[in-house]
Design brief:
The complex is a heterotrimer.
Chain A (H helix, E strand, L loop, with lengths): L13 H12 L5 H9 L2 H18 L2 H26 L7 H15 L10 H19 L8 H20 L20 E2 L4 E3 L2 E3 L2 H23 L2 H11 L1 H6 L4 H27 L1 E2 L6 H14 L4 H17 L3 H19 L3 H25 L12 H6 L10 H21 L2 H21 L5 H19 L14
Chain B lengths: L1 H31 L6 H18 L10 H28 L9 H21 L4 E2 L2 H4 L5 E4 L2 E4 H23 L1 H11 L1 H6 L4 H26 L2 E2 L3 H17 L3 H22 L4 H15 L14
Antiparallel strand pairs in B: 1-4, 2-3
Helix pairs in contact in B: 1-6, 1-7, 1-9, 1-10, 1-11, 2-3, 2-4, 2-9, 2-10, 3-9, 6-7, 6-9, 7-9, 10-11, 11-12
Chain C lengths: L3 H29 L29 E6 L6 H22 L4 E6 L4 H13 L3 E5 L4 H14 L4 E4 L14 E3 L4 H14 L4 E6 L3 H16 L3 E6 L8 H5 L7 E4 L4 H13 L5 E4 L14 E4 L8 H13 L8 H19 L6 H9 L26 E5 L5 E3 L3
Parallel strand pairs in C: 1-2, 1-3, 3-4, 4-5, 6-7, 6-8, 8-9, 9-10
Antiparallel strand pairs in C: 10-11, 11-12
Helix pairs in contact in C: 2-10, 3-4, 5-6, 10-11
The chains are: A mainly alpha, B mainly alpha, C alpha/beta.
Chain lengths: ~475, ~300, ~400
Amino acid sequence: MTSPNDEVRIGVDQWVEQSEGRRVQYSGWTAPVRRLFDRLAPGPRLGLFLLAAATYPFLVRASDVRIGIAILLLAMVALGLNVVVGWAGLLDLGYVAFYGFGAYFYAIVASDQLPAHWPTWIAIPVIVAATAILGALLSLPSRRLAGDYLAIMTLFFAQIFVELVRNFERLPFVGDDLNLTGGPNGIPGVKPWDLFGFEINTFTRQYYLALIFLGLLIVGLHNLNSSRTGRAWRALREDTLAAEHMTTPVNRMKLLAFAVGAAIAGLTGAMFAAVQVGVFPNNFNLFILITMYAAVILGGSGSIPGVVLGAIAIAYVPELLRDPSKAGWLFYAGLVVVVFVLVRRWDRLAATAGGVVAFGFLVRAVSSSIWDESTMGETNDTFFSRLVDGWVLILDAQRDVITNYAFVAAIAGVLLVAVSRGWWRIAALIPTVYLGILVWENKLAFQPSVTRQLLFGAVLVVMMAVRPQGLLGTKRVEIT
Amino acid sequence: MEFFLQQTVNGLTLGSVYALLALGYSMVYGVLKLLNFAHGEVYMFGAFAGYGVLTILGGSSALVVPVWLAIVLMFVAAMATSSAIGVALERFAYRPLRNSTRIAPLISAIGASFFLQASALLLFTANSRTYNTPQLIQIETGIPFGPIRVWMVRLLVIASAALLMVLLTLWVNRTKTGKAVRAVSFDREAAAMMGIDVDKVIVIVFLIGSALAGIGGVMVGLVFGRIFHLMGFVAGLKAFTAAVVGGIGSIPGAMLGGLLIGFAEAYTTGYISSTFQNLIVFGLLILVLLVRPSGLLGRPELVKV
Amino acid sequence: MRNKPIWRTMAVLLALALVAAACGGDDSADTTTTTSGPAATTTTAADATTTTAAEPMVCEATVGFMGPITGPVAFIGEVQLNWFKYAVDTFNSDMGYDFGIAEFDTQFDAAQASTLAAQVLDNSAIVGIVGPAGSDQVDAAGAVFEAGDPNLTFISPSSTRVGITAKYNGLFRTVGTDDDQGPTTADLIISQGGTKVFMIDDQSSYSTGLADSTQAALEAGNVEVIRESVSQDITDFSALVSNIPDDADFVYLPWQIAANGQILANQMAEQGKDAVIVGSDGMDSDDFSTPGSFILSFVADISAFPQSADLLAGYLAQYPNTNTFGPPVFVATQVILEAIDRVCAAGEVPSRASVLAEVRNTDLADSIIGQPISFTPEGNMVVSQWYVFQIQEDGSKVGFVG
């Protein structure tokens, strides 16, 4: 991102490149904000974040606090994953199992699965220690396996965990009376955390507890990262062989990374079980793992503020898309932004806007004279649909079939626009924008839940294309 | 003996499909060193394209063309659809990330995979479809092998998968383009310096890998029947597993890995336990990896210092 | 990636768009509903005051739907959502109301259900919920409802786990439980002279519960049971089919995914296994059509009743497909809407507590599923009749009297 272009230039050594990079870094109109952020020491930065996060529950409703808990838990677990993936560079696809292990462990000792409930202050340290040991055990294959082979091995571990939990009572050596995990039914009715008589049983309390843990975690991880251990991990990530030659105890460092990551996941899992008041096998499937990875990579693998920001984005964007009226705003705002970015000269912009409007009226005039049912349908009656009703076709009969074709055509149009240049781009853009609005008003706006997934997927692809190193990540060359 | 033969046929069918999918994974990995997690969705769209052609031709029970022609057309449509999606994926989701870290394209792939799943949900609804193959090719038709009789469709799947693998191997080893693919997967930069158009090779690899996935989709539709918008997830995971266990980047390895998983699943269900099928298969594969840390046919990675 | 500043501008603009969306959404939601926030799909009538309502008092409320609209069992949620919309539309046009709807996509995930339950509670226009679908999600959402507002009615149209209704004050269901279906299945198999049953569950909560209950009833009747299970993501059953002994006379499939049942049936035919398949209510779908098989269903063949047949035809005119998970949603929605209707008729403003009280008083003499609807104090159906169908050569289902 910092270098002006990607080509190798003659006579430009690393120092010149870096100083150029520093200058380019703060160019453009977002510069003041970025400069401020970079100049702020980590301490005040964290303080500002915690302050903002602490006031959040006062400003919003209970359901938003609940979303806040989900965000904080994702941030915690993603920070743990960041230790393994972002710092030590080990692709651990079994990470979700540690989260599940912590959650199930807590659920078992804090529900009616066992005759005696453990006090929280005993349960939590035991869970954290047990998960760390499990993590250390899983690091053993990493002595022999590297890269994707380690990834698939850990993925097997994650799947074995879910299979075991789901079929625990059917294991040959387990009787019916020792059904610890509840099988496919999971464990409902998990008790809240009870810290010396203070029950963490409301959303607000759970939120603040999670926030405290997140703050402690950020401080701890920040210090760890700048310690000898942190440096050893990064050395490991950049070049294991070289690190080994520099007498880094590679295997011990890998073990430590796995154990630290796992312990954090175990702790978060134990909180999650209490927040959800139950644990179920499907809570720990691969989709959850994908969410964690998305938070780490989207935010910027290796960067603590990046991972936290990534978790906020990954957990909050889908919630934003849940409400169709918000999704409508997002769609139209996004459309305008994309048109602005693709067409930057004002004359062409005017031509595009005029073209789209004219194209719409033309299509409507032609279509309604041939087949009058093409304008007779109902909109979903939001602000935008009232605005474009009378311009875009709102189909009545054959809606599904026609919008299916229009949907495929719109996607093809988007791809065409992306590869064409100049006036061709505008020629492709006009019908594409029209088709997009047509599909939105006829189909997508009526299926908010599906549309939400569609847009979330698109947002992920676009965000990665825009910033391959993640939102707050730093670009680095990977040695393969 | 009858039971063993039957399970062998079961495993072979399943393994052939896994192998076809794993080939796409492995080839893409070879040239780009990236895990194309959206490969399963490419396969799903292939299956739906085949279904679309079948419906246009009158459906399984009232076909307007000869059966063989219908099947050929289904394969062609699936290949076309899947390759188009595969190439678009490469161009729009992966190419912008060509020079970034190894894990960054993972998220692109996942985003693309969500997008494609949701698109399928919009286009085809969540209602699963069936090819209804028994009406197309009678269940009674088949060739006897000793005590058991093997359904024509299974034979078709196994034979065409084998044929495709042979063709692919020949293509990679004997043709000029194949040589270019091998060169790019060996060292992309060096290949570019030797005058190989790396972008073109990558597109070709996506084209062929996706076409194989499309064929795999139609095969699954024909032999197992049910297709639905999420079918790509589990299949993609199996293919990924097969590719890695076989030795990722190695084409014969992907085939071997696919077959190994197919057989492991069939024999585990047959002789040990269906409940713990996944558990036992994964355990077995872990053992394989511990014994051969670079997969069955993978080269141990040489590290230049 | 040559034009980097553009991409950066685009990213910033996109972020601004997100913020705009957040604010914009708030505005529009505030204008369309008086009481609720932006969290849900509220389409409550803003213009209800301008329409000429039949009653002098304006009777307004929103009913929510929670279900797996996307995700692994989207085929359930999609049909459930369609039936839900259809029920509200039908009721609104028949009775002259303008009740709003809100949809909540659980993705068949308990964690989602828990978050969504909080959003339901915050939307005070919502007086009742149809859903969630699976027992996991019922447990997760139920815990939030019980803590936040125990007076919120939520009627699950597909959760069959025994004992779950006793745990939550507002929970009802419009399907029978595993304890009803299991013995009925066992009776059928025993009456058909079954001596050896091959039973395969799909490792889901629904399936194992049903299989356990059926197995117990069969073993009490001295029928030999061979129990197997497969994970739901497996779509090739040929290896399992080879395990079916030749002297097994029935194969019992308590499965949610009927199309998988058809695959298994095809593979049985392929390998020459001639045991008869008995399917649970989840298998009651057009996707499963193996002649000679028995299907248990909570829902009578609804096209057989004149009033249900009309409703079904009206539904199919608007929506592409249906399955066994649909009609109980219609019943659940009808129960809530009629409760709101009675609250309004009594001159009260519909609230969660008043609707809950009226839902408890539900006493429908007949319903689309061919049974009278009233609830036990726990929230189960008082009458839960199971029907047995046999699939004929032409694929039609005929009621079976054993």
